[in-house]
Hints:
Number of strands of chain A: 14
Radius of gyration of chain A: 23 Å
Strand order of the largest sheet of chain A: 6-7-8-3-9-10
CATH architecture of the largest domain in chain A: 3-Layer(aba) Sandwich
Oligomer: heterodimer
Largest sheet of chain B: none
Order of helices and strands of chain B: HHHHHHHHHH
CATH superfamily of the largest domain in chain A: P-loop containing nucleotide triphosphate hydrolases
Largest sheet of chain A: 6 strands, mixed
Number of helices of chain A: 10
Radius of gyration of chain B: 18 Å
Helix content of chain A: 25-40%
Mean pLDDT of chain B: 93
Helix content of chain B: over 70%
Number of helices of chain B: 10
Shape of chain A: elongated
Number of domains of chain B: 1
Structural class of chain A: alpha/beta
Shape of chain B: globular
Strand content of chain B: under 5%
Number of domains of chain A: 2
Low-confidence stretches of chain A: none
Structural class of chain B: mainly alpha
Mean pLDDT of chain A: 90
Amino acid sequence: MTVPAIEVRGACKRYGDLRALDGVDLDVEGGEFFGLLGPNGAGKTTLISALAGLVRADAGSLKVMGHDVVSDYRNARRQLGVVPQELVFDPFFTVREALRIQSGYFGIRRNDDWIDEILGHLDLTAKADTNMRSLSGGMKRRVLVAQALVHRPPVIVLDEPTAGVDVELRQGLWQFVRRLNRDGHTVILTTHYLEEAETLCTRIAMLKSGRVVALDTTENLLARFATHTLRVRLASPLAADLGAVRQERGWLEFALERYDEVEGMLRRLREAGGEIVEMQLGEPDLETVFVGVMRA
Amino acid sequence: MTGFSTLLYKEVLRFWKVSFQTVGAPVLTAVLYLMIFSHVLEEHVEVFAGVSYTSFLVPGLIMMSVLQNAFANSSSSLIQSKITGNLVFVLLPPISYREFYAAYVLASVLRGLFVGLGVGVAALPFVELSPPAPLWILVFALTGGAMLGSLGVVAGIWAEKFDQLAGFQNFLIMPLTMLSGVFYSIRSLPEFWQAISHFNPFFYMIDGFRYGFFGQSDVSPWASLGVVVVCLALVAGLTLNMLSRGYKLRG
Lengths: 296, 251
């Protein structure tokens, strides 16, 4: 039996009256690209902080690659690379110094070969000897990713890594993270960009008020909660009610379970005397799932 | 061990990169004190028999600089890292709280020693220093520096804003160091204030440190060492307890 990359059992954390984590159970298997979604204040960052040892859970247990984050914190932290949400940096050092120091904290003395490799992948080679202060926000974000990787952790956590990041960097970052995932790293991602989670993550957990309210493969979530939509604009209003879920500015929107229902719908429209001027077909997306789950 | 030594290296590099402010400035301050006080008081005060006021003043100024800078180092490093958020780089790796403590305190002691050495060298044109008991000098510089470095860790962790830290520094550390007998022997004080001074641990650090320079002091260096070691143990115990609980660091 293989050890899960992340194992969370009954994790609770309170801040006064606020239950940031309210009995979270979660397993992430090795090699997964896992998405952790939820609105602000749902407990995503608290959960990540608890895994990283930045916050102590009041109850429950959290393990990284089988190592308890409290009783066996040294091994747990060696297995984990965290890219924090805030754009933090140490203004005293250059990029290379910061990475060498970070390696040393993890007990690695000579790490320049690997540091050079990470710098190369993140397009930072030219900035290696630049002081952290002089880097742009996007560059600082890349250094944060590099710092999380100096000790080659099998599990990588990215806490909203693309907030406020331009398109080019975002794509470059995802390319790199996908590669790490292909190479066998487990990746856990929190993001507000649902389309990002949809394309990248194989499995998703949705958090709300400190609880896991949905946990499944991205495919199943889409199939279970989301529907296809057919939107049509007609030349003139219809007399009959064909069961449109929404009606605005001449557009009618119909919810369909599967694509093969499109044909029947179009036929019924024609029979009702509708003349289609424009038509759009929408695929199920995670946003619909997200909104549905959060409302439930 | 690599985690500890890297953190120590980083802390030393941090103050060394801005040594103009962290070492140069306090040396200049101490030299100004030395010039002004020795000019005003040289003719009027003789504290120990056969020791000029300026000679008496120099060891006190050196030790005061050691103590204040040891405190300043750990406290300012921690509060800066907390406020800018980069303390997370030290909290994520597998560094134990004991290693964390040792690295911050040792770096503070080193900064204190650098500044103290700087003040000593800068004082050479004014006085002749040929200490009869150099080992005492080292012992008090190390224990006193460690205690203040440790207090700096406490203050840096406790304070959430720069003005809270400044309050700690201005209303606790400064008065205790200034009233510890740096500029005078407590024997010259009225009896009441002499008695009060004996409750100031900084007095014993200065007095014991000065013993190394003259072989004379207000109280026995062994007694002073006893007080300083007990205070250091108490502060270290408190600091380690805070760190082990993750007080204000690991919510």
